[in-house]
Amino acid sequence: MMTKTSSETKGIIKTGEKVVEVRNLKKSFGDVKVLRDLNLDLYDRENLVILGRSGSGKSVLIKCMVGLLKPDSGDINVLGYDVPSLNHKELDELRQQVGFSFQGSALYDSMTVRENLEFPLKRNLGIYDRHELDKLVIDALTDVGLEKAVSKTPAELSGGMKKRVGIARTLILKPKIMLYDEPTAGLDPVTSGEINDLIMEVRDKYNTASIIITHDISCARNTSDRIIALFGGYNKIEGTFDDLKNSEDPELKEFFIY
Asked: What is the C-alpha separation between 10 and 73, in angstroms, rounded?
């Protein structure tokens, strides 16, 4: 169990350090038990895939990890923060270090791409200098291959381009951890492959640890260092892609019929 509590140690990562620890996590909505007894660890620069069916609690897990949902019980430690105990100010502090790539990209339709990326810089970092804003925005868009889309609105972008802009808006704050919620959902196979490649490029350039929530077996194969199969609200099977592919578990075998 990570024990860092002081403000001086929060957010500090060493190579190979455990950056997320979840123990005995439970979350229900009314009589529906979504997470029953979930445990996981995430290490520095690791890509951990959470694989499971729609409705299996994958998205609930990462929302609990950043304090968007409060668990019924269990321990969640992220970058040295005891998440369930954090106040509003401490949650904001943590969230600046954890990038959240939403399934629907979550772009503001009324803003241009530039304005979407400037928004977190102004709100979270207090940056208003035009030269600095321009440089940070173009650098982030260049990293996702969309620097020429800076003046477009979300309505002018394809689904894959929106995903890329959403990732760029997250990367612009230089997070230590990336959380990807169904990054290839609704995309064609070619665009899905490009997003998978981008996830790997982000890890290599930004040295992030990542949790990738998906039910897309191709995404799991191409982005994972390790996979946790989430069934029935707990991590049923854990290992490499080949470990899970070779499993005799009947629920898991259905994912590998492709």
From this structure: 23
